[in-house]
Write a structure and sequence with these properties.
With about 140 residues, this protein is α/β, with parallel strands linked by helices. It has a domain of about 80 residues. About 35% of the residues lie in helices and about 20% in strands. It has a five-stranded parallel beta sheet with strand order 2-1-3-4-5, sandwiched between helices. Helix 3 runs parallel beside helix 4. The protein starts with a strand and ends with a helix. Catalyzes a trans-dehydration via an enolate intermediate.
Length: about 140
């Protein structure tokens, strides 16, 4: 099984930014743990702060991978283009959020991507990624 994690803008700063919301762990450390836990599958990782690069990555892998775990960051709430890219591909996408977006600012309560995704997982910290991987594995 081949799973792609895609992180959007500012998620390269995990472990540094707004620790009260996002925690103290950087994503590389978490990714190492996740890969060890799921040693029998391939977990690829991609992060970009650029909307078009995220769309290009979806196009590149969206017909050949078994699943995509996507935290599009703020693009979740604004990007019709990423939503259209998700709708255009065959690979199932699960939208994830580290924080509980429904406990935050009202603009974060709306997702442009959710309708094109298999499901949404929010509010479980970094464990949101593992929960998404579990869902992809169990179909």
């Amino acid at each position: 099984m081949n799973i792609q994690i895609i992180n959007g803008p500012n998620l390269n700063l995990l472990g540094i930014r707004e620790k009260s919301i996002y925690g103290n762990t950087n994503f590389d450390t978490y990714l190492d743990e996740l890969r060890k836990h799921y040693a029998n599958i391939t977990i690829n990782y991609y992060q970009s702060n650029v909307e078009g690069e995220i769309i290009n990555k979806l196009h590149e892998i969206g017909f050949s991978f078994d699943g995509i775990v996507m935290n599009a960051g703020a693009y979740t709430h604004t990007s019709i283009a990423i939503a259209d890219a998700i709708a255009a591909i065959n690979t199932p996408v699960i939208e994830v959020h580290i924080s509980n977006v429904y406990k935050r600012e009202e603009f974060r309560h709306s997702s442009m991507l959710a309708a094109s995704c298999k499901g949404v997982i929010a509010g479980f910290g970094m464990d949101s990624y593992r929960l998404a991987v579990e869902n992809l594995l169990n179909g």
